[in-house]
Write a structure and sequence with these properties.
Length: about 90
């Protein structure tokens, strides 16, 4: 499902215009992004939890040249699936 398909589905299910659904979806994505950037986590009960995890610096190997390269530490977005979503997908 693409973002435009998601917007169309939200508009249909919520009885909104596509323009209003677009604003709602974009606002939700922007709010989640802002929370993650500030280091907060976003928990949607039954759906899942968005959070930020720190990855340590590490040494990797370039498989083509067998050369060792240093991969710097970084922060990455993470999503943990909620129980209700996990059960719905498993059916």
């Amino acid at each position: 499902m693409t973002k435009s398909e998601l917007i169309a589905s939200v508009a249909e299910k919520a009885g909104l215009t596509k323009k209003d659904a677009d604003k709602a979806v974009n606002a939700a994505i922007e709010t989640i992004t802002e929370a993650l950037v500030s280091g907060d986590k976003v928990q949607i009960v039954g759906f899942g939890t968005f959070s930020v995890k720190d990855r340590k610096a590490r040494t990797a190997i370039n498989l083509m040249t067998k050369e060792k390269i240093e991969v710097p530490a970084t922060r990455v977005a993470s999503f943990k699936v909620g129980k209700a979503l996990k059960e719905a997908v498993a059916k």
